[in-house]
Amino acid sequence: MMKKSYYLLLTLVAACVTTFFLGRWTGMSLSLGSQRIVRTVHESWCRADDAHAADTTLRLSNLFRDELQSAGLRHLRFRLDIVPLSGDSTVVLRDGLRYYADYAPLVEAGHTYVIPTGDGQGIRAALLNLRAETLGVQLYYLLGTLVGFSLLGYGIVAQVRIIHRQDKLSQMREDFSYAMIHDMKTPISTLLMGLNALRSGRLDDKPEKKQRHFDVLEQEARHLLALTNKVLTLSKLEHHQLLLNPDYFDLRPLVDELVQVFETKATKPVTFHIDLPGPGLYAAREHLKEAPSNLLDKAMKFSTESVEITITSRLEEHYIHLTVRDNGIGIPLSAQRTIFDKFERASATGDKQTPGFGLGLNYVMNVIREHGGYVSVESVPGRFSAFTLSLPEVTGEEEITNE
Question: Which has the closest alpha carbon to 322: 372, 373, 362?
Fold first, then answer.
């Protein structure tokens, strides 16, 4: 946590430093842009003056316009004014202009120095839209600055979100590791105690009790194997490495088998209502079996004192829909978006003490997707939850093709 806070602080410091230098760069760019325009206008007028002095048959306006366009100031408009050389305080001759500070106020005032033409008069250029030309450059730099700040802001927000997601993922992994170790500890302890009891020989003259110990050991070993297979299957599903061997089978025997298992291990009164008029399925039976098994396990865990589970199926729009509905505590609408995410275990109820790893519903979603189907949920907190597994209907011709 300290390391992440350090990186976040480092990001904010870097953002502040970048903002400072970006602001300085913007200010300098605006200043330099304005200075460049003033200098370009003055130098263009000087070159036009020199060219006209070398050949008086050339028009000064054309020379000045050509110089401005070659310098990139194509949109600057001007007019040539005849002014008296005396009696006008704004009249400045070229001889008095040597440095930028000398001619900058003149150009910024909207005109150039005066070129004498004789008879006490001179000609100068009145700059009609100098501010518009300067404003265009300023807008260009301003737009670049806004884009830079936008990218900087987006980078900071993205960094914070990444850190937040990493924090959440780290917490999920810790919860998963704790839950997995806790759930594996019980069967491993049971296996060790059972083996010690059998090895001691105390049950040799009690065959019935000895057989019960064997049954318990087998059940716990199968529990560990199922847990391991679930994690491995999920990993294969995520990497698209799971090979399915689909076959056609009836739903009723599969559901009856699951009902018998959950009735046997139920620790509270449970009633099953089964209505399966729909056709059978063409799927990988063992992998698909885990999907309704996980839903039944969830219904038993997150239920009241008395459990009622309804299992139905129907054929609709070329999909076979298998629905498992319970009378449990329900799932809030805000949590229904995330309950299928990996390691999401307590979002639906807020109860982290309920045993589990947050893999069940994620497994259900991935297995059904692998079969070309989808999963939907409908729930009202305090009343019920209904999960529907929708699998594509496979005709006889399609089955032969797939095989």
Answer: 373
Domains and CATH numbers, the chain: 247-402 (3.30.565.10)
Best CA proximity match to 250, nearest among 272, 275, 287, 276: 276
Q: Is the pLDDT of residue 220 over 80?
A: no
Question: How far from 280 is each of 230, 255, 274, 362, 371, CA to CA, in Å?
Answer: 24, 12, 15, 24, 14
Phi–psi pair at 69, nearest 5 degrees: -65, -40
Where do we find the tokens 């390391």? 3
Q: Under 8 Å CB-to-CB from 90, ≥6 apart: which residues?
A: 83, 109, 111
**Is the separation of the CB atoms in 347 and 335 below 8 Å?**
yes
Q: How far apart are CA 360 and CA 371, in angstroms?
A: 17
The CA distance from 168 to 121, in Å, is 81
Could you tell me what percent of the chain has a pLDDT over 70? 77
Give me the residue label for tokens 């064997």: 214
Contacts of 66 (CB under 8 A, 6+ apart): 48
**Across 130-134, 149-153, 183-187, 194-198, which has the greatest mean pLDDT?**
194-198
* Cα gap 153→306, rounded to integer Å: 54
What is the chain's mean pLDDT, rounded? 79
Alpha-carbon gap, residue 363 to 260, rounded angstroms: 22
